[in-house]
Design goal:
The chain is of the alpha+beta class and 401 residues long. The chain folds into four domains: 61 residues; 119 residues, 2-Layer Sandwich (Alpha-Beta Plaits), CATH 3.30.70; 73 residues, no CATH class; 70 residues, no CATH class. It has nine helices and 13 strands. Strands 2-5-1-6 form a four-stranded antiparallel sheet. Helix 7 packs antiparallel against helix 8. The protein is elongated and about 135 Å long. The termini are far apart.
């Protein structure tokens, strides 16, 4: 197609031209100009598309080359070092909430007052204040406003971040309303939030009511026990689970001591058991601290009749790598051992079975430990399990006394 005639080069109509011809002439002139502009625009777009196609091809080539080239080891070491440095810095930080915030107008005096409160807390925990590197307000805008008698009051003090030279901390009764948490990176907080949400979602999908061999099992369902008793589906009750009442002390002679005011959760719990004629049958400590010492009773077995519980005893905790298959083999081994003892060790057939099961337990134990440690090492998202396992293997553990 030939180029359109520019509007300035168009011929002029004679004066005696009819009006219809003049109108058609103007239309043709406008159409020609518009088509000329469109043609120019199309050429520019085609050239632009060609240049973008060339640039896209070059980028794809560079991307393929980068995929085939392994990352520089120095860069990888640098990134790993920076991550470890950042993680170690966060591990030494503590987030303290619950301390009454200073109302002093002078910022310097306010910082000194907050620092003095934190030093008292650290002294109570047994941490030398010289180990404290920095104390700062983490979120001063965290204060929530509550109107009481048309006056605004602050109910949530600001968080304080404390950077220490070590990462040890411990709760005490003196600061019962003060909570200490580890400072986490954004990725660690997001991962913990994901784990909490996943736990809640899976717990919500659990079967709350199940009957096995005539025994009704109820899991974490409000008023389910009362409804089961009212409907006469069962003639007794046995509640088991973890109850976190550290200030309730049980004694082997049945005596129960509760430390705290009358309206404390521990006293209210004991009053509820007495009012409902229920008995808690575990009278020895079941919570084991990191140093191996036993503190309070965590695992409860509650029933309306203590005679329902025939035997309760404390046993060492199972290893994390222990499987159901190994437990069954250990039971078989114990049974064969008693059978062999009853024959004074003279039954060669039982002795051969016993030795075979023993060798199988040793073999499967080594395999289970190896598989468990490989899973821990490969769990990059949650390294705390690996560190906890390593600490459990140490003879001497770091702690604040």
């Amino acid at each position: 197609m030939e180029d359109y005639i520019p509007q300035a080069n168009w011929p002029v109509c004679p004066p005696a031209t009819a009006s219809v011809t003049k109108t058609s002439y103007i239309w043709l002139q406008q159409i020609s100009t518009a088509m000329s502009n469109i043609q120019t625009r199309v050429r520019l777009l085609e050239d632009e598309n060609k240049s973008q196609a060339i640039e896209l091809s070059n980028l794809r080539t560079e991307l393929n080359e980068l995929k085939n080239i392994s990352p520089n080891s120095n860069i990888r070491k640098f990134v790993t070092k920076q991550r470890q440095k950042k993680r170690s810095r966060y591990e030494n930080n503590l987030i303290i909430s619950g301390l009454v915030e200073s109302t002093d107008v002078n910022e310097e005096e306010k910082v000194k007052e907050d620092q003095a409160k934190v030093e008292v807390k650290l002294e109570t925990l047994g941490v030398n204040k010289t180990n404290c590197k920095r104390i700062a307000i983490l979120k001063s805008k965290r204060l929530t406003q509550v109107k009481v008698d048309e006056q605004s009051t602050n109910t949530r003090p600001a968080l304080l971040i404390v950077e220490l030279k070590d990462n040890g901390s411990k709760q005490t009764e003196e600061f019962r309303n003060v909570y200490i948490n580890q400072d986490r990176t954004l990725s660690e907080r997001a991962h913990e939030r994901y784990l909490r949400e996943t736990k809640k979602e899976r717990n919500s999908q659990l079967t709350h009511l199940e009957t096995v061999d005539g025994i009704t099992l109820i899991y974490k369902m409000e008023n389910a026990v009362k409804r089961a008793l009212d409907s006469k589906k069962c003639n007794g009750i046995l509640v088991t689970g973890d109850f976190n009442f550290p200030y309730i002390k049980y004694h082997t002679d049945g005596y129960v001591a509760v430390y705290g005011p009358n309206d404390s959760p521990g006293n209210l719990f004991i009053d509820m058991l007495n009012n409902e004629s229920l008995s808690q049958t575990v009278h020895f400590p079941t919570f084991r601290k990191a140093d191996g010492s036993m503190t309070n009773t965590l695992d409860y077995v509650i029933t309306e009749s203590p005679d329902r519980v025939s035997l309760l005893k404390e046993t060492p905790p199972l290893a994390a790598w222990m499987t159901h298959e190994l437990l069954n083999l250990i039971k078989i081994k114990k049974t064969l051992w008693h059978q062999l003892q009853s024959t004074w060790g003279k039954n060669r057939e039982i002795e051969a079975k016993y030795k075979k099961v023993k060798r199988e337990i040793e073999k499967k134990s080594r395999y289970s430990i190896k598989a468990f440690e490989i899973d821990l090492a490969s769990d990059k998202n949650n390294p705390k399990h690996l560190f906890a396992y390593i600490n459990s293997k140490q003879t001497i553990k770091k702690r604040i006394s």
